[in-house]
Amino acid sequence: MSINGFLISFILLHASLTLAKNPKEPIWPPVVQTDRGITYRSVYNDTRSVKYFSFCGIKYGRLINRFSAPAPPCYKSIKSCARGNPSISRAITPEYQIPGYPKCSQAIPENGTNYKKREKSYQYIPKVVPDDEVEDCLFLDILVPEKVWNQTRGKNKSLTAVVVYIHGGGFTSGDKSLKEDPSPLLARGLDLDPQGIIVVSINYRLGLFGFLAGAGNDFASNGGLMDQRMALGWIQKHIDKFGGDKSRVTLFGEGAGASSILHHLTAPNITDHFFPNIQPKIKHHRNFPFHFAVLQSPKFQPIITSQSDATYQKVLAVTSKIWGSKVKSVKQLRLLPYEVLYAVNTILVRESAYGTFTFGPAVDYQKGINNSYVPDYPLRRLATGRMAKGVHVMVGQKIDEGHFFEPSIMRKPDGLKISLAKMFPTVVKHHLEYVNDFLYPSRDYNSVDNGEIKRSAEGLRDIFLGCNIHYLLHTMAQSSGYVLKTTWASQCRFFEQAIFQAGARDTFGNNSSKTTINWLQDELLHFSRRGALTARIRPYDGSGRVLLASDNEPKNYIDDPSAKHQCRYWAKFKFERRK
After folding, report:
1. For residues 466 and 481, what is the distance between their CA atoms, to the nearest angstrom?
2. What does the pLDDT look like over 368-379, one tens digit per residue?
3. 139 burial class (0-12, 13-18, 19+ CB within 10 angstroms)?
4. What is the rounded distance in angstroms from the CA atom of residue 317 to the CA atom of residue 105?
5. DSSP-based three-state secondary structure for 577
6. CA distances (Å), 295 to each of 125, 178, 259, in order?
7. Contacts with 415 (C-beta within 8 Å, 6 or more apart), sequence order
8. Contact 164, 197 (CB under 8 A)
9. Per the record's keyword annotation, is Signal included, yes or no (predicted)?
């Protein structure tokens, strides 16, 4: 070890000993010690807009086996701790914080490629797995402004609001490392409220590793959602040690992140069943693990059982080809090298049909078994009142958000019916004909340019997105909504840029766009303080109106564009025939 390395190690060791012997003497930069004696060190960030501490790489859970629910982390104080599957790829704990380390296994579809005509040569098999992508990736980061930290350590100790960011990426890519500098958001939080905010970002398993599903198989579906739920439980138990108020936790998410929140809102409250060791035994600590939520464009494709089964069989087939030997079961998948499954995940996601990702949340209900996290489609759960009614929600949507399938199909007179038949192959034929001929009749689009494309886009938007938005706004007791009509709203990851970078740099084009983006950031921060009590957008309630935010028009309230009569049909639609 070099002299400099020795000095750094000595300083860190001295800091830990000082914390144990002199708890009242401040440590720099701060450290946090949990009730299990685990110490988390911070890094000091001195930016132009705000000074803050980052606690990165905090382990909130671990994997004992593949395709299983997560388990609590193993601590030295725990005498008996189950040994994990040795085939699982695990992160090497660094001696210092590495931003963005580690990531869960990543994969991205080749959108726009006609995968059916592409040669199945497996030329996309990764030669080397990136060092920072592992299976046991259940880590989170916490960002605390210095001013907030000092307030929580004084005599008049006060805890502050917590924003938990769940990244998007189609359930196959993304990670906890914020792609945008968080300092503008932290600074603006202090401008609007002296108590400021604390930001938490989390990893969760993705693709094959987090969302393998299939009826009757010996594994837990929706592992990625259960990872998120475990992280929220960890936050409830420990965030006060970082200065956060566990009774004021707001989730932010866009796309897959927002869809994740939707699934948590409609999931059974089964924390005791899956995570009995995460939340305290005290009864009032067993409340729902978040209190407010901002869902920007909660779109996802409902995955039916027949699709899950087909994907599972394809996983086995592709794995067998790569491994060079027949693979017939999850038991065998669990024993294979990580590199093999990483290649399988890459291939299947890259070959996803246009606008889809192959993997994602799937209904996992099995009769007589009480461990389902997604017992039914969220839309039906909302329509029948089976959701966390006490959570305050703000829901955002964009104008003309609905291009999910290939334009070549959508131009055809029966384009909508063809698309639906591909998505839901077991649906009775006359249901598809009813949708095509009566629910979205061609005559309603004859006078519109590209009428067939618009007809198909509207139908798919309603299923994937619009009706989710409408029923969230309509059924949740405390809800409000907004519609974005801006030049930058179509950008990839625009919501992340909006909430973290508003006012920071020339990202959003003209001055009108900048004004709108600054407004959006402020609205989200006001909402995160105490939900509907501090929100400035009017409640949805009986008016059914949402706020339109446009680059070129004054902000005004309009009828909710997602409130369509077709949603009543989709809320009862039988996506597949039950056997």
Report:
1. 12
2. 566 789 999 999
3. buried
4. 20
5. coil
6. 35, 18, 8
7. 409, 452, 453, 455, 456
8. no
9. yes
